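Posted in: Structural Biology > Protein-Ligand Complexes

Title: Requesting predicted complex, NAP in pocket

I'd be grateful if someone could produce the 3D structure tokens for the following input. Sequence and ligand are given below.
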Amino acid sequence: MNYDIIVVGGGPAGMTAAIYAGRAGWKTLLVDPMGGGGQPSTADMIYNYPGFPDGVKGPDLMDLMARQAKVFGVKIDYEEVAKVTQEGQDESGKAGEAGFKVSSGDTEYTARAVVYAAGSRPRKLGVPGEEEYLAKGIGFCATCDGALFRDKVVAVVGGGDSALSEAVFLTQYAKEVIIIHRRDEYRAGVANVKLVQENPKIRELLSTVVESVRGDEVLTGITVRNLKTGEVRDLEVQGLFLYVGWTPNVEPIRHLVETDKNGYVLTNEDMSTKTPGLFVAGDLRRKPLRQVTTAVGDGATAAWSAEKYLLERGVR
Ligand code: NAP
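-- Reply #1 --
Done. Output follows.
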């Protein structure tokens, strides 16, 4: 299966790259394990994406993007990409480098250029009991699972925008939402901090960490420790949502790119990497602001750069 451009990842960066590439007439494939969606599809509402004065549901926004990509002839495959490798030189010489092999399980695709926008995956806490109660009370997507916790007590760990906005979301179901953050200052922006502090159903435990997790068949409680006083106490909670940051999904292209110490890929302004023909867009890049808006911009730039790369090599 040969393509001009393969886009890996169906979040806002990948979808935008695919929309631009498809619209420009390139034979484009988008590969994503869920067929697209990315992180925003786990967000209840997105209020800062321009064009939606009343906010937009994350899954709805991502469905619209996928539909738009299909309108422009993009093929979408449900696959998890395991490796991207660079092929040898093109025999004709005319088109320069032969391109890339994109492998996922038993399937192999080739493309002359790749836009890699596989984002990142949620981090875990690494505390006793956590693995045992994953999906048995511990989750990473309040939007997906929140309704299961009607009239229950849930805890949300983290102090970033994800933790705070999802804690607010959970208050429509839970009788109490406890935010547990390791510092006494939030990382989240003021808008979300205000929403949390104004919400009577939310209790804040600052300078506090989760030490362990317990339960029977399902989660029943957690043990927390106050980092300032050293006080340790047990809390009865039926749900625990983790929003403690993300690990970049860089493994399939690690050998083709440079990363910073946290694994985020170093790109040029045009999204190019140290490997000609491989462009990286979205949350996986080292950059100061990770939002849907910035991902969309990255995706557009990456597709534009991929097109320039292909035209310079006489493809088309
Ligand atoms: P984030 O900003 O990286 O926040 C992660 C939070 O988890 C931080 O508060 C961090 O604490 C905490 N943390 C990390 N490791 C921990 C550990 N081992 N134990 C306990 N706590 C730990 O991640 P995010 O909230 O998912 O946001 C990611 C990006 O998306 C951000 O740029 C954010 O602005 C954006 N976003 C925006 C919105 C919006 O409404 N505009 C919504 C969602 C996400 P420290 O603060 O102490 O480091």
